[in-house]
Design goal:
alpha/beta; 12 helices; nine-stranded mixed sheet; 430 residues
Amino acid sequence: MILPSHLTVRDGRLRIGEHDTVDLAERFGTPLYVTSEDRIRENFGRLSGALTAHYPKIRILYAAKANGNLAVFKTLASMGAGADVFSAGEVALALGSGMRPASLLFNGSSKTPADLALAVEKGIRVSVDSPDELRQLDAVAGEAGRTVDIAFRVNPAIEVPTHPKIATGLATSKFGIPAGAILDAYREALALEHVNPVGIHCHIGSQILAVEPFAREVEVLIDVARDLIDIGVEPSFIDIGGGLGIPYRRETDRAPTPEEYAGAVMPVFKKGIKDLGIEPELWVEPGRWLVGDSTILLTRINSVKTAHKTFANVDAGFNLLIRPTMYDSYHEVVAANKADAPAVREYSVTGPICETGDILAKDRMLPELAAGDLIAVLDAGAYGFAMSSQYNSRPRCAEVLLAGEKAALMRRAETIDDLTAPMVTVPWQE
C-alpha cells in the first residue's frame, strides 16, 4: 500500500505526523477522527503556490461543506483563505474563524429569505442561482437600504468524469443558469437598484481526476465575460469553483497535481483575460483537495465473523462515514496496530448500523485480525464527519487535531443527553 507522506509506519504501528495512532485511540477513545493541521497547511500552500506562479490575483475560497469543524476553518483562515458557504451555519463558522465577509461567497440553488437577508446584513457576495432569486435578493436588499454585490452561477453543460451525484455542471444539474441564458440574467440585474453584478461563478463537480474539463469550463466563462463586457459589466472576479480530485486508490488512481491543474487552467484564463483587456481576480473553491487526505478515521474491531465471507465488525459505521454507502466510494484501510504485518486474509470491514449496506471497505486483504484490533480508514477528511448523522440514535464521535507534537480535541464526542436535548415532550404525553 502507498501511504501519503504524513502517514508512516514505526514499530508495526501506523503514525500520523508525530503521533502513534494506537496511542491516540487509547487516549481519546474510538471511533475517532484524527486530522493533521500540518497536512492542511501543506496542501493549501502547494495549491496556492501552483496558481500564483502563473497569476498573482488568486483567491482561494475553501469549500466549507467538505469539513465544517471550526478548527479547520481557523487553520485555513490563518493562511488567507476565504470560503464558499451554503448556509447560515457555514457563514457563522467562516466569520467565527476570522475570515472577512469580503472573502466569502454565499452559494446554493435554494436560499431561504433568511439566507438572503443574512448575506445582505453581513456584506457577503451572493452567487445568484436564478432570476427568481435575483428579484428576491433585490427586494431584501432594498428593505435593508443596501446594495449587495453578486455573481450569477453559470451552468456550462460540461460532462465530467465523476460520480453523477457530484457532477454539478451537467445540463441536467439543479445548479446555475444555462450559459445561453446568462446574459439576460445580467441585463435584469443591471436594471435593478439594489444588486451590483461584479463577477461570474461556476462549479462543474467534485472528485474530478482530469484537468481538461476545468480548461473547458474556463473557456465557457471567458465567453460569458466577453458578452458581459459588451453590455457594460466588467467582472472583478471569475470563480471557477473547485472539484480537483484526490487518489483514494493510490496504487491505481492517477490524480492531477496542483501544478498540472494550474498548467491546464491558467494559460486559458490568462489568454482569455488578455484578449478581453481585463485583469479580474481568479477565485477557486477547493475542499476535498485541501482536507481530504489530512484525516483518518480510527475504529476498533468489536468482533470477527466468518459466514459467506469474513467480516471485521467495527465500532464506526455509515453514521460516521457515509461515502462508501452513498457513492460506493473506496477508502484504503490499514490495521493500525499491525501496520507492517503481512496481508493474509480477505475481510470486509463492516459497521454497527442496522443496514446491510453498512460496509466501510469490501473484500480487503489484511493481516490476521481479532477483536480489539484498530482499523484506520484513510482519506476521511472531506465529507466524512461533515456528512455524519445520529442514525440508530448513535452519538457522533470525537475529532482530534494534531499540530507537530500537539494533539487536542477539536470536537468532543456526543453523549446520549446530546441526542435527547432538542426533544420536547408534547402536552398530551406529559
